[in-house]
Design a protein that fits this description.
There is one protein chain. By secondary structure, this protein is mostly helical. About 55% of the residues lie in helices and about 5% in strands. The protein has helices spanning about 45-55, 60-105, 105-120; strands at about 10, 20. A two-stranded antiparallel ribbon has the order 1-2. The radius of gyration is 38 Å and the shape is elongated.
């Protein structure tokens, strides 16, 4: 008798259904609450449905689904590169202006005065 396995018993769950319960298990008291965190919304398929409805092939739609995000990524990378180049150009221009102003001396001031007179501002 000692070598026989334990016989599972039938228990009734709180929702009224019956299930088998092994003697080493404890009956569940309440269903567990599952917290599901959705971090990204599913893609909108409206454009693809409209395209398929107008007679465009599935290969074209699949290419749009595949290459659309790639195009966005490439354009974003290009914009970031252009912004970095613009920042570098601004810093270089500021540096050149600063060096010219500090190293100009009296000759630079006289040249600026001559240019101002030539434009019509006579002092």
């Amino acid at each position: 008798m000692e070598s026989l396995p334990d016989i599972p018993r039938v228990v009734q769950l709180p929702d009224g259904t019956h299930t088998y319960l092994h003697p080493t298990q404890h009956p569940p008291t309440a269903p567990a609450v599952v917290h599901q965190h959705v971090h990204q919304a599913p893609p909108d398929r409206t454009v693809q449905r409209l395209a398929l409805g107008t007679g465009i092939g599935a290969g074209t739609v699949a290419a749009g689904v595949y290459f659309g995000p790639l195009l966005v990524g490439v354009l974003t990378a290009m914009a970031a590169n252009l912004a970095l180049l613009a920042l570098i150009a601004c810093v270089c221009a500021w540096g050149v202006v600063t060096v010219v102003r500090s190293a100009g001396g009296p000759d630079g001031k006289a040249a600026a005065k001559n240019i101002a007179r030539a434009r019509g501002r006579r002092g």
